[in-house]
Design goal:
alpha+beta, five-stranded mixed sheet, 2 helices, 26% strand, Restrct_endonuc-II-like, tRNA_endonuc-like_dom_sf, UPF0102 protein SAMN05421870_113111, nuclease, endonuclease
Length: 171
């Protein structure tokens, strides 16, 4: 029976289903936090724990290579407020500050090209601090052979043995 009233059906309509959300999205749209953005540089970065394990493995290889070259490893992972020295070694009468860079094999990317001048300058400052706190405090004078900064680059290929390159006197 038609009474002349129009009925919009709003009170009896079923609620509309929400659109499906992609993983990591919030109801308002894509998440601004959380997982990596595929278009962002570094999106393929490994978790910090994996990077830490990779770095430790590289430092172990570097320390072994330095010992095989006749150096004595004096200290590893020395830290102060200004930063960290990966390896401090002694080569005859010289103190050697070693920066270790470990990378997985990636085309056109080598660890030897990843040490900017600012990092080299920081290593020089760290070397001075280490000398004053550790060496001079113990021996009372600078090392007779001076101080040298070396870079040990390690590339871990998908298969096969790691490739270790040691460059002496980078800065």
């Amino acid at each position: 029976m038609n009474t002349g009233e129009t009925h919009s059906g709003a009170d009896t309509a079923r609620p509309r289903p929400r659109p499906r959300q992609a993983a990591g999205e919030r109801p308002g749209g894509p998440s601004t936090r959380g997982g990596p953005d595929p278009g962002r540089r570094g999106a393929q970065r490994r978790p910090a724990r994996a990077r830490g394990a990779l770095g430790r493995y590289g430092e172990d290889l570097a320390a072994r290579r330095l010992r095989e070259a006749g150096m004595a490893v004096l200290e590893r992972n020395w830290r102060c407020a200004e930063g960290e020295i990966d390896i401090v070694a002694r080569d005859a009468d010289a103190v050697v500050i070693c920066e270790v860079k470990t990378r997985r094999a990636v085309p056109f990317q080598t660890p030897m090209g990843s040490l900017p001048p600012a990092r080299t300058a920081r290593l020089r400052r760290l070397a001075g601090r280490w000398l004053s706190e550790r060496w001079i405090a113990r021996y009372g004078r600078p090392p007779t052979g001076g101080v040298r900064i070396d870079l040990v680059g390690i590339v871990l290929p998908g298969r096969g043995a790691p490739v270790v390159e040691h460059v002496r006197g980078i800065g």
